[in-house]
Design brief:
By secondary structure, this protein is an alpha/beta fold. Helix content is 44%, strand content 18%.
């Protein structure tokens, strides 16, 4: 399952490990032949995206932009799930708030965004997505962040 990582920051992230997080979620959720992208951005870029797409003029931690719905595709054509955008600055702040490393928080946000691409919605599911997120995250190693 191809995962594209686009790091638009000066931070050094283990991109292979980050792609493996997405692969683990997709495989564990039976996504089959699917593709996704992770974009790592600065706070200003995240604020602009959040303002444009959600009408919230603030920096957020993660946004998911699904592309393909769960519809039938021609044989051999991968499902294009969409993009997960993560603000590394907000990720690092939340890691301190949560009492863990930025690499662990990056895993949490990546799993969270990937589950959104798969159609999960924690605002309407009574906590099921967040419980699933915790189970998945607990089974994964953190991503190295230098």
């Amino acid at each position: 399952m191809p995962v594209e990582i686009d790091n638009r920051t000066d931070e050094r992230i283990d991109e292979i490990a980050l792609a493996n997080v997405v692969d683990s979620v997709l495989e564990g959720q039976g996504a089959g032949d699917a593709e996704a992208a992770i974009l790592l951005v600065e706070a200003d870029a995240m604020r602009a995206l959040n303002r444009q797409h959600r009408r919230h003029d603030e920096v957020t931690d993660v946004l998911a932009f699904p592309i393909d719905e769960d519809e039938a595709l021609p044989a051999g054509m991968p499902r294009l799930l969409g993009d997960v955008v993560i603000c590394l600055e907000r990720c690092a702040e939340q890691a301190v708030e949560q009492g863990h490393t930025p690499g662990r928080e990056l895993v949490v946000l990546t799993v969270h965004g990937t589950l959104h691409l798969l159609g999960h919605d924690h605002e309407t599911d009574g906590g099921a997505m967040l419980e699933l997120q915790d189970r998945i995250t607990d089974a994964l190693d953190e991503v190295a962040w230098r």
